[in-house]
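Narrative of accomplishments. A recurring question from our advisory board has been how the design workflow behaves on a single, concrete structure rather than in aggregate. To address it, we present the structure tokens for one chain from the evaluation set, followed by the sequence designed for it. No filtering or post-editing was applied between the two.
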């Protein structure tokens, strides 16, 4: 059916095939990224809230800063800013915390943007692929009826093959769109959950550093 379709319909099918391959590649890649992000968040929070020494954690994590992600990246950004500001004389504790929160907010935004990478492509595939397939189907049906216009007597046996060939484009459009929509909805929800998790940790860590800042800057 693909071989006998018109050139325009074949072009639409080729586009949908390429889009579907790219979409499935992104779906699997995003699945591994989000799975790793959940695992890293669990491991980091378990280590942090068990009472680990933050200075030792910072020293260890900062050695491989290029490979950090999630809560670890937010932690390193915040604690680095805290140690830098805490050394300044005459600075108020609230000024330290404001600086720390700005640094962690930047790291949080970077991590959220990374998690959301390629989600817009999946959304675009899910919303446009059926229309691309429908365009190929309409074009194929138009071509089929035009070719039968010169016949003295056109029967269903003459019309059906051309229409069935054109409908393949619609089927391919749905095949590309349905997984992309499902993956987008699932991964968008996972991304929001992870972003909320990072933000909660940021607020809790800010509270820890705030108490430490007031103790360090308390008058003696």
């Amino acid at each position: 059916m693909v071989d006998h379709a018109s050139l325009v319909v074949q072009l639409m099918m080729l586009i949908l095939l390429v889009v579907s391959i790219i979409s499935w590649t992104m779906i699997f890649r995003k699945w591994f990224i989000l799975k790793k992000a959940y695992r890293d968040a669990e491991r980091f929070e378990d280590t942090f809230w068990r009472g680990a020494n933050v200075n030792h954690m910072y020293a260890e994590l900062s050695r491989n800063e290029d490979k950090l992600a999630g809560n670890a990246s937010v932690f390193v950004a915040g604690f680095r800013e805290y140690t830098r500001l805490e050394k300044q004389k005459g600075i108020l504790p609230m000024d330290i915390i404001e600086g720390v929160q700005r640094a962690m907010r930047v790291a949080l935004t970077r991590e959220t943007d990374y998690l959301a990478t390629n989600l817009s492509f999946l959304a675009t595939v899910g919303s446009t692929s059926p229309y691309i397939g429908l365009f190929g189907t309409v074009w194929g049906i138009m071509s089929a009826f035009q070719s039968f216009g010169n016949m003295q007597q056109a029967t269903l046996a003459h019309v059906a093959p051309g229409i069935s060939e054109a409908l393949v484009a619609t089927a391919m459009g749905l095949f590309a769109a349905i997984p992309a929509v499902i993956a987008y909805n699932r991964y968008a929800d996972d991304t929001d959950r992870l972003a909320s998790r990072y933000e909660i940790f940021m607020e809790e860590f800010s509270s820890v550093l705030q108490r430490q800042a007031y103790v360090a800057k308390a008058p003696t």
